[in-house]
Amino acid sequence: MFSLLRRPTLTWPRRMKAILQNQRSIYSKPPKDKIGPGQSLLALCAFAVTLLAPAGWIMHHIPEYKQRSSQQP
Questions:
Q1: Contact, 18 vs 10, CB < 8 A?
Q2: pLDDT tens digits, residue range 10-58?
C-alpha cells in the first residue's frame, strides 16, 4: 500500500536539474510596488482570521461535542 503512495526517487542528475530550475525562479531584485503598513496589517489580519477562526469555532463548541458523545451508547 505504501509503495503506491511513495514517489519515485530522483537520480543525482535529475535532482541537480530540479534544484537549478528552482533557483532560476528566485528573484533578488527589490519589489516593484512598495506595500504600506495598512496593507501589511490587512494581510496579517486576514491570515490570522483564516488560521484561528476554525480552531476558535471548534474550541467554542467543545461542550456540545462532549454532550453528543455521552448521549450515544
A1: yes
A2: 677 777 777 777 666 666 778 788 889 999 999 999 999 999 999 999 9
Q: What is the pTM of this model?
A: 0.47
CB within 8 A of 1, min separation 6: which ones?
A: none
Phi, psi (5° rounding) for residue 55? -65, -40
| Confidence at residue 44, expressed as pLDDT on a 0 to 100 scale | 97
| Residue 38, CA distances (Å) to 21, 41, 46 in order | 35, 5, 12
Q: What pLDDT is stored for residue 5 in this prediction?
A: 58
3-33 burial, b at 16+ Cβ within 10 Å, e below that, comes to: eeeeeeeeeeeeeeeeeeeeeeeeeeeeeee
